[in-house]
Every structure is written in structure tokens, then in C-alpha cells.
Amino acid sequence: MPRTLKGLSLIGLASAQPGERTFHAADARTGERLEPAFHPTRPADLDRAAAAAEHAFGAYAATPPAERADFLRAIAAELEARGEAIIERADRETALGDARLTGELGRTANQLRLFATLLDEGDWLDIRIDAGDPGRTPAPKPDVRSLRRPLGPVAVFGASNFPLAFSVAGGDTASALAAGCPVIVKAHPAHPGTSELVGRAVRAAAREQGMPDGVFSLLFDDGYEVGQALVRHPLVRAVGFTGSRSGGQALMRLAGERPDPIPVYAEMSSVNPVFVLPLATRRRPGPISDALLASFTLGAGQFCTNPGIVLLEAGEAGDVLRDRLVEGARKAEAHAMLTAGIHRAFGTGLQRLADAGARRLAEGHRAAGLTAASAAVWETDASAAVDDPRLTQEVFGPSTVLVRYRSDDELLAFAGVMEGQLTATLHGEDDEWERYRPLVAALERKAGRLLVNQVPTGVEVCRAMVHGGPYPATSDGRTTSVGARAIERFTRLVAYQNFPKALLPNELA
Amino acid sequence: MPRTLKGLSLIGLASAQPGERTFHAADARTGERLEPAFHPTRPADLDRAAAAAEHAFGAYAATPPAERADFLRAIAAELEARGEAIIERADRETALGDARLTGELGRTANQLRLFATLLDEGDWLDIRIDAGDPGRTPAPKPDVRSLRRPLGPVAVFGASNFPLAFSVAGGDTASALAAGCPVIVKAHPAHPGTSELVGRAVRAAAREQGMPDGVFSLLFDDGYEVGQALVRHPLVRAVGFTGSRSGGQALMRLAGERPDPIPVYAEMSSVNPVFVLPLATRRRPGPISDALLASFTLGAGQFCTNPGIVLLEAGEAGDVLRDRLVEGARKAEAHAMLTAGIHRAFGTGLQRLADAGARRLAEGHRAAGLTAASAAVWETDASAAVDDPRLTQEVFGPSTVLVRYRSDDELLAFAGVMEGQLTATLHGEDDEWERYRPLVAALERKAGRLLVNQVPTGVEVCRAMVHGGPYPATSDGRTTSVGARAIERFTRLVAYQNFPKALLPNELA
């Protein structure tokens, strides 16, 4: 197991040559420069990675599903075997802490194993067979069989906030590899060392399992050039991305401007509104405020499912819940954020709320450290939030805005104007659901996942999960990037008519 | 049953007001102006149609599937009851002839009934249930259930070449209505009378079945304004289109430029290459040339699956097949095309082939009549076809180009450069398949449907059918516009976490 980082892109089973320019990772807590130097992938090496992926595709797409399942399980095992080194580096690069990173590594391995299980089962292929009937009149009925086939080489962009579960061997990579697509990862520049360690684990598994050279490559860059070239590359057939709205929109534009547009699955931004209904406000102010506090400060608020907006009744009952939340937030410890840039953006987001007239109710403990962020609770009125989009834009970090509503109409008006979201949450009591059916119906059109009396952070990796949502939460609100159905994103339907058995794909014969 | 055409858009259950400007349909055979005058939909009426669709959506999406199935079956019955009038008008507007139109009406009714059956069965919902486990450590497992939900109001553009099966009550409309989406159809200006008759049948079925007002509207326009406004309309959530490449690309652009991009399912263009392999060329020249002749001249060649390119071995064996095809084409009757514009475009396409150096081998009977088109057979070399894209562009009409290949390498090179297609067909013998596995693998990446020893025209409406294909055959090569899976295009995944039973969608409770 190589523990020494080289800072070089992995082009299939080989390493790239060093270039002239380099960049370094930084310790997320101290800003200290971390060795080694990383070499942005040169255009020729990107071309080699794409050509190798294209070359590998034929053989890889034709591997028996059981072999791809073994490959995925081998990646999971390699990650676990190298877990200590991966977590140590990831903690320095992200400040997320051992406990969170240990959990995330486990989740990453579990995701890989979930897709391996899907491959064993085969339902994801959506096999359909219409037997022919040569005697049908007026025209014979042809034999038509169809299933999902892999798209081809897939580009995956690592996410800053999930250095493992949504990065080099994360959900997009696992689902694309499971579908039969070679993967070219563009590592996130904030955690290149973690990315290289994970990339080496994937490469080792590919070697062990005899996978075709080119089934996996890993590219580095601290700028935009490599990522843009990857999305424009004629051999790339789809893109997976988790990151900012502006980043996702840029990739959508690039992919749409290609001579042959390709699908982009970008998970971009969400404020995950929480609707606290009147009876729940009165009966459970403590548990609800405690759950919200834990949820919006978790991991320094750096989750795409962070509850950044809480709809709360105006008046005394709401005040009780609010005051408890504020009291808790004031006591919350400050935490280092992922990068200095994210910390700066957090400050800008808070200033935007202040400029828009939101009232700041709480600020948690301050702490030394370049990137330390304190919990922030804000308050505004529903009418203001409906009118001024600055009050409901995502602030990536431990901040939440209490939007005080005076009537059911205000709640519905808010649900009507809110943007597409990954999640929407309701806290309510059994004897008030009937009254809020119209609200539930409105939210169903705005979010990919609706929750009742739980918190949106902590996305369960399971077969029924939907981690998606209408634009601008994602670029393609029909799909999910977490859970079993994520594999479908990297496939297309192909039908075989009147094929001799010998020529049919094995699954259809 | 109203048989008198009014020329007014149908806005939900009401008719639009007449406008100032009007247009007329033309008899496709004679150019004679057909009454009545049709009134392009005014912007205010388009807004009314969209608002009515949005208003209907909540109630319509919540209808029990059995009620939507009844609605679809009622549309089919209304179409059949009004069949004589519909076919009479459609024949004047399209020159497709009674036999073809009778078959197409039957197919249209069958499509509606196929989706009704899907609604009865429910598999299309893709229901997944992960039961919760409150006792799981370290964290309780939440109850997560998910299924497909309808997207919202859908815009459907009628196709010129299928006045019934891909128009007002065609596949896009049937699948969107089945999914639970209200539909706003923009009628094709070449057959507005047929469109109005079919639209009235849909409206009558909606009335009979007590469907919410706004579940269906029908708009007219002989220009682009109404269609463009429809795709830009904020309440429209998806677009279905069958037509030209330039038309589909324009809609893709409009949808992508919206503040909230929406999915466009455009079926655009395809030359449906047919690969005649060497042994088949030698053993079955007669049956293969006869089948090709019938296929490329069917309906004056006005099918999206028309075989416009035939890869044929150079040399004597290929010449035998070619000569028989040419002989047949010379005897083929001329047929009126759908419109004068399509006839002009056919002439332009033939001229483009001549300009690119293709050799014209045959021209069928000429006939009087504004839009009469004769069968045309062309010949070129595979190397020329690989180099000059003019030789492989779609020529919409009864024309096919024999591309003569000298080696397997030339065949593979052609498959490598060819654009995405709806179909690709192989004619081969059992003892040559092994040799052509690489060709089959290459074609699998370029087409939505692969056929062996049959012809691509005549798309079977069945569960396994895939009528789609990589760009530019369609805007979204992951999907199909024919067959059971077409319903999935108008849905998105939604998950419900920890929902009380009373609040879950019926299908999940």
C-alpha cells in the first residue's frame, strides 16, 4: 500500500508526467501548506485518460455483472484497508474530524457494496421482452427485447464537503462503474491528497480484479481548465457533479453547447426549508428546536441538506421555540470550515442576510483559527422572505433563518415562490395534517424528498432514497444521486429486434 | 358529435375567441385551400390554457389511476366513433391515404389503451419502500418510500408525418396524460382540421369522464410564436416534440435558456442505416432488396425510421442486389408528399446528394401534382460517405443512398463516424455474425433500436420498444417516445420520509 503521495494524475493504470505548474493543499484548520506539490493534468494526459476510458468501455461494459460487483467490493475493501491514512489526510485537508470521516468512509464503502448487490440482482437493467408472433395479422409481431446499457465514459467532479462519499470513489463513481461506464474523476482541489489516496485504492482494486486499463482515471487541477476540457471532451458521455450553483450551471452550459449535448447530473444548492406547524410548535418546542440546532450546525453546516430556512409561526408559541434555538446556538462551539474560500463565502452570505434586513438573533462561540465559523440564527417575516430572494438564498455554513408566518396563506405563499429543493420538512401533529394537505401538495412539487418530524441532514443510502429535486436544487430533477436508482443516470435504453440468440446481450438471451 | 370545424383553439373545456389573423390548411394533393379559417392562439389564450393546466394539475395528478385509465380509454373510443370524419379530413390534409390513416387511427387508439393498462398495473410508478428501523445503531433507520410523480403541465407539438399517432392524441399526449400531467398541444399547421377533430374527441372524453377543466388544451399557429411562447411559459414543465432537427434544436435552446430549464423530448432526425453483410448479400439479394424498396418508399418515405442509407458490399454480389433495388424503384409509383414545403425540402435534399457527387441510379415514376415525389436510389463509396457528411444527412422522402464498402474496416469506420440514430439494421446470415460482433457493438452505441433481418419502418407499440437514440436522433437518448416506458419521461422521483400513513400518496400507504 503506497502511503507516499506523488501529486500526479492517474491515467488508467499509469501515472501522468509532472507538469511545470503545481499547487498545494492547505491544512483546513491552520492554512499551513501541505506537501506534496500537485501537478494539474496536462491536456495531453487528459486526452490519454479519455482515450483509455473509451478503449476500456467495450470490454468493461461487456464484463459479467458479477465481475463488476467484485470490482466494486474490492474498491470498498481497499478503502477500508487504507482507511487510517485516508482519514488522517482527509482530516488535515477538510477539518471534518475523525468521527465524521470514519463514518463517511464507512458510508462510501457501503455505497459501493449497495451497487454491487444491485449488480447481483439485475433489476436495474429494466429488462423487457416482447416475444414475437409471426402469425399475427395484419402484420407479424416482431420479437423485441430491451434493457439499459451504459452510456460510455463518465466525468465525475469531487465535492468539497464530502471528501469521500461524493468524491473520487463516491456515489457518482460507484453508480457509473456499476452501470458499466469507465470513470474519469476530476479531484476537488481542496483535498487532492485524500483524492490521490482514494484514487490509488481504486486503481489497486482495478489491477487486482483484472479490469481493463482506463476504467478509472484521476485528474488534478486547482483551476477550471481541466474540468471544462473534460466536459467538452468528445469521448465523455455524461457528467456527475456536486457543488455550487454557479459551478453546476457552468457545466450545464458547457455540456449544452457541445455539438452533441450530454447529460449533466449536477447537485447544486438547496436551503431545505423546514415547516413547523402550529400544533407542533406548541407541543414540542424543545425537541424540535434541539433537533434543528443539531441539524443546522452539524459539520459546520456544510451539508447540501442543511436546514437553512425554518418557517415558524409568529407570536408567543413560536417565540418559545425560537428562544430555545437561539439559546442553544449561543452555546454552540465554533468549527473550522472546509476551506478559507468557503469561510469567506459564509461571511458574504451572512452579510447578504443583514443587508436584506434579517435580524441576527444569535451567534455561537467565536474561536481562533482562519476558518472558524460560529452558528448564526436569523429572523425575518414571511412576507419579506417572499418578496426578497436574498433572504432565502443558500448560505453554506452553520446558519439558519427563522421565517415567521402569520397565517396558512403566508405558508402557502412561501411554498409557492420557493425554488426547487433537495428536501422539505414538516414538523406537525396528527391532528393538524388534514389542514395542511395543500401545503404538502405544494411542497411535493418543489422537493425531491419530503420529511415528517425528522431532520433533512443524514441522507440514508437505501433503495428508496431520492436525493434530487427540481432545478436549481439539481440540474435534472427527475433523478437521484443517492440510493439504488442513481445507477440509472448513466444508462440509456437499447432495443434488439429479431436478434438471433447468439447475438443478444447475455441478459436478454 | 360536432363535425363542423370552427378553427378556434380549445382552452380547457371552452373555445378561444377568434383573432384577427387566420390561416388555412391546404389539400396535400392539389394545394386547394381548405375551409375553415384557423385562428392562431392569442397570447392571452395561451396564458389561460397554461393557467387552466396548472390549476387542473393538483386534482388530475391525484385522480386514482383507474380514473385516468378510463379517461384514456374514453379518448380511444371517441376517436374510433369519429374515425370516418377524422380520416376523411386527415387524408385531404396529408395525402396519406385511407388505408394508412385507418391503421394509424387504430394504432393511436391502441397506444391510449396500452397506457390505460399500465395504469391498471401500476409498475410504472417504480414504488420502493425501505421500512424504518428505530432500533438500528448507531443511528435509527428512517422509513423511506418513493415513487414517480407527474411533472406538471406538458407541451406537446404535433408531427407533420403522423397526423394521429404523433399528434393531438398521439404517443406524447397519451403518455403524459397517463402519468398525471395536463397536456397543451400545439397543432401542426399542416393538418389543423384533423387536429381540431381529434382535439374535440379528447375534450368530449374529458367531459364524459369528469376530468378537471384544463387537463387538455389545443393551440393553433402557422408560425413559431405560439410554440416558442409555450416552451418559455413558466407553468410548462416538459416538452414533447417530433419533427425536424432544426425545430428540435430550437426547442432545446429555448428550454435550456429558461430561468428553470425543463426537459425536452425531441425526436429529430435519423437516416436509419442498414448494413447488408456479405453472406446475406450473396444468399438473399431478392428478399433484401424487395424489403428495402418497400420500406424506403412506404408513405412516400416520410417516416422517421425510413432507411435512408444502405451499406452494401462493392463488387458483383452487391451489384446484383443493387440492380434489383434500382429496377424496383424505377417502377415505383409517385406519391404526393405531406406538404408543398416538405416536397421542396425533398428536392433540396436530392440536389445536395448530387452536389456531393452521389450517383443517381433510379428515379421512380413521375406524376402530376404539386407535391408528387418519385423514388430515388443513389450510390456512393463508403470512403466518400465517411468524409462528406452531405452524403449521410437525412433526406426526408422516398430516397435511399447505397454506400458501397470494400472491407470490414470501411464498415466499422462508417459506423464509427455516423451520427446517433433511431435505428440501425443488420442483414446477415448465422455464419457471419461472429465476424461482425465488433460492428454490432459499435452500432449499439449509435442507435436506440437494432434490428436483424427486418426493416426499421413499422415501430411496434409494445412494452419493450425503444424509439429513441443518441443525439441528434433525439434530444435525450436515454428515453423512448414509443412503448410503455414513454410514460417515465413525464415523471420525477419523490421520496417520503417518516410520513404518517394518512399523508402518504395512496400508492405508498
Describe the structure.
Two copies of one chain form a homodimer. Chain A contains 15 helices and 21 strands. In chain A, helix 2 packs across helix 6 and helix 14 runs parallel beside helix 15. Chain A has helices spanning 43-61, 65-81, 83-94, 98-121, 171-179, 192-208, 225-232, 245-257, 278-283, 285-297, 316-331, 340-355, 382-387, 408-417, 437-444, and strands at 10-11, 14-15, 23-26, 33-38, 128-130, 144-150, 154-157, 183-186, 216-219, 238-242, 264-267, 274-276, 309-313, 335-336, 359-363, 372-373, 376-381, 399-405, 421-427, 447-452, 491-497. In chain A, strand 7, helix 5 and strand 8 (183-186) form a beta-alpha-beta unit. The model of chain A has no long low-confidence stretch (mean pLDDT 96). In chain A, the strands form six sheets. A seven-stranded mixed beta sheet of chain A has the order 15-17-18-13-12-19-20, sandwiched between helices. A five-stranded parallel beta sheet of chain A has the order 9-8-7-10-11, sandwiched between helices. Chain A is α/β, with parallel strands linked by helices and 509 residues long.
Write the layout of secondary structure elements.
2 copies of one chain form a homodimer.
Chain A lengths: L9 E2 L2 E2 L7 E4 L6 E6 L4 H19 L3 H17 L1 H12 L3 H24 L6 E3 L13 E7 L3 E4 L13 H9 L3 E4 L5 H17 L7 E4 L5 H8 L5 E5 L2 H13 L6 E4 L6 E3 L1 H6 L1 H13 L11 E5 L2 H16 L3 E2 L3 H16 L3 E5 L8 E2 L2 E6 H6 L11 E7 L2 H10 L3 E7 L9 H8 L2 E6 L38 E7 L12
Parallel strand pairs in A: 7-8, 7-10, 8-9, 10-11, 12-13, 12-19, 13-18, 17-18, 19-20
Antiparallel strand pairs in A: 1-2, 3-4, 5-6, 6-21, 14-16, 15-17
Helix pairs in contact in A: 2-4, 2-6, 3-4, 3-6, 4-5, 10-11, 14-15
